[in-house]
Structures are given as C-alpha cells and as structure tokens.
Amino acid sequence: MFKAAIKNLLGHKLRMFLTGFSIILGVSFVSGTYIFTDSIGSTFDNLFSEVYSGTDVSVRAKQADFGSTKRIISQELLDKVSAVDGVSAVAPEVAGYAQLIGKDEQLIGGQGPPTLGFEWTTEPSLQVFTIDEADGRAPTAPGEVVIDKATADANSFVVGDKVKILLQGPAEEFTLVGIAKFGSADGLAGATLAAFELSEAQRVLGYDDGYSGIDLKATNSVSPEELKARIDSILPAEYESITGTEQSNEQLDEINQGLGFINTALLAFAGIAIFVGSFIIQNTFRIIVAQRSKELALLRAIGATKVQVVRLVIYEAIFIALLASVTGILLGLVVSSGVRSLMNAIGFGLPEGPLSIEPRTIVVSLGVGMFVTLFAALLPAIKASKVSPIEAMRENEASASNRKSLFTRGAVGGMTTIIGAGLLAYGLNGDVNNPLYAVGAGVTLMFIGVSTIAPLLSVPLAQLISWPLVKTRGITARLARDNAKRTPRRTASSAAALMIGVSLVTMLSILATTFKSNITTILDNSFPADLSVLSKNIGDAGPGSAKFSSAIGEDIATLPEITDVSAFRYEFEGAKIDGQVVFIAGVDAATIGNVINIGESEGSYTALADNGLLVSKTVYDEKGWSVGQEIPIEYALNGEQMIKIVGFFTEAFDSDFIISTETYSTNFNDEGVTLLAMNVADGYSDDDGKVAVQNVLTDYPQTEVQDKGDIFKTAEEQIDQILGLFWGLLGFAIIIAVLGITNTLMLSISERTRELGMLRAIGMTREQTRRMIRYESIIIALFGAILGIGMGSFFAWAVLKALASEGISGYNVSFVQLLIYFILSIIAGVIAAAWPARKAARMNVLKAIYHD
C-alpha cells in the first residue's frame, strides 16, 4: 500500500502541491516565529554575555511585581558597598529618559524601543560600551554626549555636531564627542542611547548627588554569588543585589517580552492558515477518495482489506504532511529573515546574527503539520473503507447517501454551533477571571459548527446568489449554479477560508465603526475641556518617555488666554488594591471638575486631597464598598497604606481608581505629567488659546496641543490603524481561499471530464466553458462571504453587548465596507477560476467523452 500511495501522489504532483500549500504556509509561520525568537534570543544572549562579562554584581532599588520603584542611591551607600571585602572595582550608575532630536528637528524614537540616558562609566573593566579610534572619545565635561552608532548612522550625526536632547525639562544642546558601540553591536534593539559625564548625567537625569545603581567587579578569589551574599548582608531592605548573569537574563527577558507582539501576530497567522488548511485538506481528500472509488473498489475486490484501504489514504496524507512541513520549516527561514528586516526598517535596530533552528522548532512544526493533515484526511479514509466493492463500482454511488449524511451533519453542526454560542456568551457576560479562554473556545466551536452545517445552507444560498447571473448570463450561469448546488459539501468546504477571514474582518469593522460613532458623544459628555497637551511618544519608550515636565503646566497657567489648567498623571500598574494590580490616576483635585465630567458623587473631588480614593461605580458596587470606608492600598515604593474612599463616579474614565496629585507624588517619586487639560478663557477663541499654548511648547517638541477636533481625529486614526492590520488578515485569508477554490475546481474538472466533453460535443464553446467555471467559482466565493459577514456581524453584536457597561452603545455597520468585501470575494473567485477554467476549455473533446 505504501508503494501504491507514493506512485499515486507522484502521478498527481500538482494536486499534491495544492493540497499541501496551506500546511506549508501555516508551518512556515510557526517555524518562522520560533526561528525568529530563538535567533534574536541567541544573538542577544551572546551580546549581553559579552557586555556583562565584567559585571559580577549590581546594586539597585528592590524590584516589585508592579509599580514604580525609583529610589536614589546615596553616596554613603556607594561608599559602604565599595568597602565590602571582595570588591575589586566599582562604577556608579545613573540612568533615565533622554530623547534625541534629529537635524530636521523631528523626534528620534519614542514609538516603541526605549530612549535611554546614562552616565559614561570611567572604570574600564565595567564599561559596556566601546568607541573606535575614528569615532571620537568619551565625555569628560558638562555639555558633552556620546550616542550609539546605530542612531548616529541612521540620523547622519558625526563627531563635533551639536545634538539636541529632550529630558524631563526643556530640550538642551550638547556637543557630540563620541560614537559608541554596545559590545560588538552598533545598537540595542532600536533603543537610542545617550551617555554623559557622571556629574552631568546626575543633573540632566534628575539624580542630584545620587545614583540609580552600582556595578561591581569581584576579586579573583571571590565568586559573584559569594560577593552578592556579602553585599546583601549590608543593604537596606529597600535595595537588592543581582549578579551579572541574572542581569543579562533579565535584559533578555525584557527584549523577548517587547517582541512578544510579533510572535503573537505570526502565530495567529499560522493558526488561521492551519485551521483553514484543515478544511481544504479534508475537502481535497474527500473528493479524491470519491474520484478513486472504482480504483479502491478494485483493490478491495482483489483482496485488500478495509484497514489496508485506510492505510493507503493515510500514507498519502503522511507523505503530503511530511513534504509540506519540511518545506514550511525551510520557508520559515525566509519568514524569520523577512520579519527581522521589516523590524529593522521601522527602527528596531536588531543586531545581526545567525539564524537559529532549535530541535523544538522542528518537532513542533512537524507535529503541527502532521497532526492537522492526518486529522483532516482520517474521515475520508474511513469513509472510503466502508464502501463495498460492488457499490463503489456503480456510476452514481455517491449521491445515494447524500441526504442522510447531510441530515446527520446538520444535527452535529447545529449542536456544535449552539455550544459555541453558549461559551461565547458565558465568556462575554459570565463571572470568570479570564474570559479569553471561553470566548476563544466559543468562537472556534462556532466556526466549526457553521462550517459543518454550511452544506445545508449552500443549496438555497447558491440559488439566491446565482439569481442575477442566471437572469443576465444565461445557460452558462445556470450550469454553474447547478454544479455548486449538487455538491454542497464541496461548495461549503471550498468557501471555508474566505468565511473565516471575512467574519473576523467584518467583526472588527463593525466594532471600529461603532467605536468611532461613540467617540464624539463620550468625549463631549465626559471631557468638556477645550484644549489638551500630551506627549507625541506612543506607549512608554523607556522610563518617562510618554510623560513630560510639570513645569509645562505651570507656564501655561500664566497665559491670559488659558484657565483651569489641570494635570493628569498615570501609572498603568501603579498599585495593588484588594490583591489586584490596578491602573491608577493622579489628578489636581482643585481643577479636575472644570475639565472632565464623569458623574462624580458630591464633594468627592474636595476630599481627594486628604489621601482620598475615588472609585468607578462599577468597582464600587462590585466590591460592596461605601463612602468613608478605609481600604488597604499597596504601592511599590512605600508599601501598604490605608486610603479612604471619598466617592464614586459613573461615567467612563481611563482608570477605575483616582487619587490626588499630592498622594500620587508621595508614592511614585515621579513628577512627570501624562496629560494636561485646560479651558480657553472668556474673550478668547479656541484658536487664540491653541496658538498661545503652542508657543509655550516650543522648547518641548515631544509634546503637542490638541483641540477637540484633533482628539477625535487622533482617536479615529488609531482605530483605523488597528483595522488596517485586520485588512491584512483579510488579504491573507483571500490568498488561502483562492488556492482552496482553485484546488477544488481543478479536482472537480477532473471528476467531470466526461460531462465537460459531452457539453463541448453538443456545442458549448471554449469561452462558455471558461465562463461556467468562473461563475461557479464566484458563487462559491460569495457563499463564503455571506456566511463570513453573517458570523462577523453576530460576533460584533456579542462583543458590543458585553461592552455596554463600559459606555459603548449602538451597533453601526459600514455598508460600504461590506460592499468592498463582496467585491473582493468576486475578484477572489475570478482569480481562483483562471487556471481551472483554462484547463477545462482546452480539454480534448473526444478524449473527454471516452474518459473513465
């Protein structure tokens, strides 16, 4: 049977390629993800091992699992640590936010990788940077700076240039005296690095006469672990020591976490390709088995057992899976290199290094490809073994049991869909700690369930979809419709890829449209401030990069055009309340009521200043708290304290927990502001106020002022960017769908060879044959699009229902976007039919008539 399987596959090479392509695609993303992660990990592991090879132990503020723990190490502690027996070299550390400005006055970085400033270490054995002879020297005086080579090359900086650098205060100008490498690499994963002379670093990074850390080298007779133990014995409780190896591992973990979204995206694409590929493979093997029924019957008649017939099909599946998986692993090398190049192109600056293929990558990739292919082929193989030799040799054996099997299929599919919908509803509305698993399982089961019952829907929907074609295009469209209707399983399986892709994108487009319609209402109701000032930096590209100096608010408050200036300070993992790490906001109690409207209880803002806590009504009710009640709150910097609940608020706000600026400053040691909100004074227009604020921000190019129109536009642009990613997902699904439909039509043409020959013999032209195949492909594609839009619309409704408590209301559908999805589906159908239609039209009529 093994030899028979190999000969059959080699005799149908094109069919074998089309069957395995989706597995190749899926496995390539699986292997590419692991290769990318392992390669970057290996490269940085070697780099950090080199960089931290001289550092045996470092001292720093004790790290907590949440919040900010910025503490200044005093000169007294530095001297105490330096005197520990076994220390041979000491280098104080000073690190903080420092963002460079390019020669074009545009910000450099701030959109992901950190923007770091630090001191230039003068102790050679503990220096992690190197400066080549041609690239200048180390900074030795105030006003001098060294930057990393990757940033210098990318922005055309040379030694001697004047470089503007943003700190927490206004931008300052420094002389570039050196260009350094990080170990043997030009840069560090896209980060911008600026090094200053020690006293200058203390001044510009806000450490006065203190330090952020201490690096130590042990004597030859003392191990790093032994030195660490000695240092721990003299450190105050709020500080800790860490070995160079541990520090290297921490840095590597941070980089891997930073790149985690790339891994997630690649694995998501892999999952979609493999999930959809399973439908295509199952469909392909079912058609192949049906086409070879006489061949299999003959094998049974000459003595082959049912088990041998199953083995024959399984052998073919194993061969395809093995070949596709190996090809996918090799293609993963290309995927990994492409991702690295793309990330470097957008500024991540990943260091060069060899690609790394770990045994785990091969095992997982092969396992995924083999399992999915065998699972998809198993049912057709078992079905083939159950057909008796006499029954299989009949001309129309396949149609006899069609109705019965579709009834069973409909019952199973309907039950699966109902269970999936139940899990989805439970995940969105149930009292579960992590609803993601229930939602994911529910969506997957609904996809499987709808795909299972799709053949029952294909007949009426094909009739409906084809009605305009039949009315306008005549006999060829009618024949195409009848072909799609008489093979409902094939039609449904072929449309599965498009159904999944369109459903996901439809859901996201409805959510995006609904969110956009809510933006204006929410901001008008809850954020009446005329103007806002915020950072241009996205996220937190290093400590403080998404924040700015509180001095900006003080300067703006002096403007006659502006009134009610109110500062907002955010910590996304700022505190722990009731055992949970929470996002907390610090606000100006005296002015916040003039710039936001969140339905706060009476007197709560006034009471905030006295170590008070304002809580969202949702959390307030869920916890059963009451106004005046004191609850414990834990800060990373100052530990657990008691705080009084002074009120609640009912409207949507960024955080569920609000404290005063005074409480925030005491417990976070951070004066950085995330947002300034303000009103324009009477007698001035919004434009007058905006121009006045812009003049103040001249020295702070990382900030910008926005009026309400700008805020609406920014929010909509962010939604559109997310939606753009899912448009890419739709394109990905369309590629797989085109291949799946092409494969099905190619097999269908082979199955209908005699039928096509007879049609040609009685007068059908080549062009009519091509049109018939093309129309059939379009009907299949539109069938998938209709199911996808229906499912996506339902998923969007379910999500919006769950978000109702967050202030999101309505259900807005962009019919223009839905029309685009239909048009893309028609284009996909036309492309998928091109090759099969050409093959059908060029068929030899006489040979086709006598084909068996």
| Major sheet | 8 strands, mixed
Mean pLDDT: 81
Percent of residues in beta strands? 15-25%
Provide the helix percentage: 55-70%
Q: Which structural category fits the helices and strands?
A: alpha+beta
Characterization of the model:
- The protein is of the alpha+beta class and 852 residues long.
- It is 57% helix and 15% strand.
- The chain has 28 helices and 21 strands.
Précis, in short:
The protein has 852 residues and is α+β, with helices and mostly antiparallel strands.
Descriptors:
852 residues; alpha+beta; eight-stranded mixed β-sheet; six-stranded mixed beta barrel
Topology, please?
Elements: H1 2-10, H2 13-51, E1 57-61, H3 75-82, E2 87-93, E3 95-97, E4 99-101, E5 115-119, E6 129-130, E7 144-148, H4 149-154, E8 162-166, E9 172-182, E10 192-196, H5 198-204, E11 213-218, H6 224-232, E12 239-243, H7 244-258, H8 260-291, H9 293-301, H10 306-345, H11 359-386, H12 389-392, H13 397-400, H14 402-429, H15 435-473, H16 475-486, H17 488-494, H18 496-526, E13 531-535, H19 551-557, E14 562-577, E15 580-587, H20 604-608, E16 612-616, H21 617-623, E17 630-635, E18 639-649, E19 657-660, H22 661-668, E20 675-680, H23 686-696, E21 703-707, H24 708-751, H25 753-761, H26 766-802, H27 815-841, H28 845-849
Parallel strand pairs: 5-10, 7-9, 15-19, 16-18
Antiparallel strand pairs: 1-11, 1-12, 2-11, 3-5, 4-8, 6-9, 7-10, 8-9, 13-20, 13-21, 14-15, 14-17, 14-20, 16-19, 17-18
